[in-house]
Amino acid sequence: xxxxxxxxGYVGTTVAACLADLGHDVxxxxxxxxxxxxxxxxxxxIHEPGLAxxxxxxxxxxxxxxxxxxxxxxxxxxxxxxxxxxEADGAIDxxxxxxxxxxxxxxxxxxxxxxxVVVKSTVVPGSTEEVVAPAIEEASGKTAGEGFHVAMNPEFxxxxxxxxxxxxxxxxxxxxxxxxxxxxxxDVFAPLVAESDAAVVETGLRExxxxxxxxxxxxxxxxxxxxxxxxxxxxxxxxAYEVADAIALDDRIGGKFLRSGLGWGGSCFPKDTxxxxxAARDAGYEPPVLEAAxxxxxxxxxxxLGLLDERADVAGERVAVLGLSFKPGTDDVxxxxxxxxxxxxxxxxxxxxxxxxxxxxxxxxHYPDIEVEYADSxxxxxxxxxxxxxxxxxxEFAALDSEFDAMATPLVLDGRHIIERxxxxxxxxxxx
Length: 432
Ligand SMILES: NC(=O)C1=CN([C@@H]2O[C@H](COP(=O)(O)OP(=O)(O)OC[C@H]3O[C@@H](n4cnc5c(N)ncnc54)[C@H](O)[C@@H]3O)[C@@H](O)[C@H]2O)C=CC1
Ligand SMILES: O=C(O)[C@H]1O[C@H](OP(=O)(O)OP(=O)(O)OC[C@H]2O[C@@H](n3ccc(=O)[nH]c3=O)[C@H](O)[C@@H]2O)[C@H](O)[C@@H](O)[C@@H]1O
Hints:
alpha/beta; Rossmann fold; six-stranded parallel sheet; 42% helix; binds 1,4-dihydronicotinamide adenine dinucleotide; UDP-glucose 6-dehydrogenase; NAD
């Protein structure tokens, strides 16, 4: 099939390269000329394991990129993988979706055949029907359901394992109104479904939109619940990881997303929980559990710093921060827990020296106002430090050992259950 994908960021590039790999002919449309040039040169514009190989293999053949929306006319279906950031109050900002839909509509105005537009971005219930479709209608002069059709296909991939997750999902969700839309989506995903154990969920547009928020909201709340329980554990000198391992044996609970600690960051859980809370409020419902999930998450960094305060005054002291990315395996620093930790340390007068295996540069670019010293290794960060705080669960931190001997005082606060307890360090776990 001929598929176009508008937006070539984490999701758009991954989906494009994977669909090309599954045998489709794919065109990426992006406003960023550097991204377009990178793809056409056979290079991935983003860092995801396996993605560079796929782009290199298919670019110039069944994968290409352009800034010209007219290219969508040569395709049967267009996925919109555009950003859906937050407004200041947490509500979803649909400006990119509206702009992309308008450009797409202008291009479709001159297409005679039917076209399917699929919203891939995470959008609150009603957005596809009430915002995206009308924007296309206005720009194309066509009517949704006649000249073009709309569908919604949420994405569940994780950063760091995006290619693997896209190609081997547990479910694919098709939200639509007409049987023809399910059929077209079925054709796009047929090679993927054939090669994986994915369940196909055919549902309505709003249900598909909500399934994405329910999925992320549930996982975010699960982490916050184990953090809440973990905080109780800490008060009673109980190891929350032993408790989690035991409750995980109940398959109604399951073992995933039970790692307590500093909580969730990243480009999605914080944005999506706030967006669905704001949308619910707007509709007249205050969702207390999701609100509490956010509150618990916001409190975890301060709880860790409170444990530090009980043991040391770090004013004027060097403190090592281990990890800057929001989770291991990525250089993404959006909403990373490193920010409240570093800010809290600096409020206490500490001189922060930070180390991350891959995210130092992106952290420095993303947070120009945060001034810290960057170290080239964990050992360098630890040298002479009064205390160390583990923020990200990078595997290499689990292997640290004699490096702690170079600290001024070997006080180690672990926010991720990643540092090995050893003789010679004063080890403090956040929930264990
Ligand atoms: N990053 C992730 O792991 C996941 C993200 N999502 C959702 O997918 C959506 C996209 O997210 P990302 O790929 O992370 O965003 P991103 O920010 O990495 O990429 C968006 C791309 O859209 C381009 N763009 C902006 N305006 C445009 C326009 N008018 N026309 C054409 N291109 C335009 C940008 O240049 C950029 O390359 C969001 O709704 C997000 O919540 C869903 C699942 C996973
Ligand atoms: O909508 C999205 O963009 C994506 O959001 C998350 O993916 P991602 O943000 O890449 O990362 P996760 O692996 O889910 O981790 C999110 C955060 O939760 C934290 N976490 C995760 C698991 C856990 O047990 N404990 C915990 O604190 C991680 O450290 C990280 O900060 C979801 O897992 C994806 O399914 C979804 O598609």
